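Provenance

Sequences were taken from public entries as deposited. Structures were produced by running a predictor on each sequence independently, with no templates supplied. The record for Probable malate:quinone oxidoreductase from Mesoterricola silvestris is shown for reference.
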Amino acid sequence: MVPKENQVDVAIVGGGIVSATLATMLAELRGDMRILVLERLGDVAEESSQAMNNAGTGHAANCELNYTPEKPDGSVDITKALNINASFEVSLQFWSHLVERGIIPAPSTFLNPCPHLSFVWGEANTRFLRTRQARLSGHPMFADMRITEDPAELKEWMPLIMEGREPGTPLAATRVDRGTDLDFGSLAHTMFTALKRRPGFRLEVNHDVQDLTREPYGLWRLKVADRKEGGHKEFTARFVFLGAGGGALPLLLKSGIPEADGYGGFPVSGQWLVCKNPSIVARHAAKVYGKATIGAPPMSVPHLDTRIIGESRALLFGPYAGFTTKYLKEGSYLDLPRSVKTTNLKPMLFAGLHNLDLTRYLIGQVLQSQEDRVKTLRDFIPTARLEDWDLEIAGQRVQIIKKDPKQGGKLEFGTEMVAAADGTLAALLGASPGASTCAATMVDLILKCFSESRTAEGQAIIRKMVPSHGHDLTKETDVLRAVRDRTNAVLGLR
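Predicted structure for Probable malate:quinone oxidoreductase:
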């Protein structure tokens, strides 16, 4: 018999920003909801949400060129960029709500304005960037996106990148001043601190969820190892959310829900070159994204980032990809082999066969020396010196593998929600832009799985958290302008 104190309404696995967002929204939706968060490490936000484990970019499709693919005829598809920008606006609204409620003491604890730039070189890439800027700037969401090919203006926008660059090569950059640098770890800590003051909320760290099963009467039973005190505990919940980053997939497969059939995961690790030399850091104040090399996964798009973490500033370049069979940075080398099941073996094999370029790319990345990495850095900073940059390990990402009727299996880049048909369990899989857009994802999840959210009262509560709820920001210019005026004022954006 599960002790009464271990019987909850909602069990959330993982203590990162996505879980903090869901727990906060549910607590707002229904104040008496019993919510349990289980985190396997000794503190929250130590995996993908930890500041140095991610790029800190507020993904709004301002600068990420992989969100605007070029078609064979040379045109540019901006559909994904519009949807991501709209989702990020939902996050900004939700964070503004938390600031106004006093849950976040000041936006500067996790958010700093930081221009977003795209930078390319070569005739073909320059032509692509012109087309992209023309398409995006024609939409109200990106009306303030500027482009230049003038070396003098490029030097003004990104002096460190232009210093020592050989003349003659076509160069171009776009710029959106209303960009952000985000510390998701700090934000998650702040949200959990506020949650712990609420009755009915419980956070357990050093608690590793090892199994979950469906009870005959509808509840989920979770078997949990106490990594600090030893032994096991059991909990029951009416709803379970698997928000444990790469750790969500193995638990999703253990759940046995039909919707999980065919899902697999391909782990990709990351590394940064980090510069903390104040004289160099002071000369760059932007996030500058380039184009990915052929065969590279979208998460490996090269970029030079200003990072502001607390009172410290640094520059990050990368990410350099690597391969490990771990699904979490603090995971096990057995994560990948243990995730192979009869239900996903075929999709995983076919996805591998269709992505041999990615395999070759990862092998090349693993074999790189520090000198090789700095050589790539010099495409961005021609004057970069080896001694100014240190290698640091970034977070672990697990790309989605799923069934495909034509190919047998395919590798997906992005994030995806997998939910049981009865709405009692859901898991968030994949990588970028997950953290940046998780507020919109969690609203969708709540609407699907919690009937009280669909009542008139529930809808009113959601609109308090996200005033644009029920509107299409990609089409309703007046609503877009109104929410941006508010978030600009509350969060200190340009």
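The chain has 15 helices and 19 strands.
The chain has a mean pLDDT of 92.
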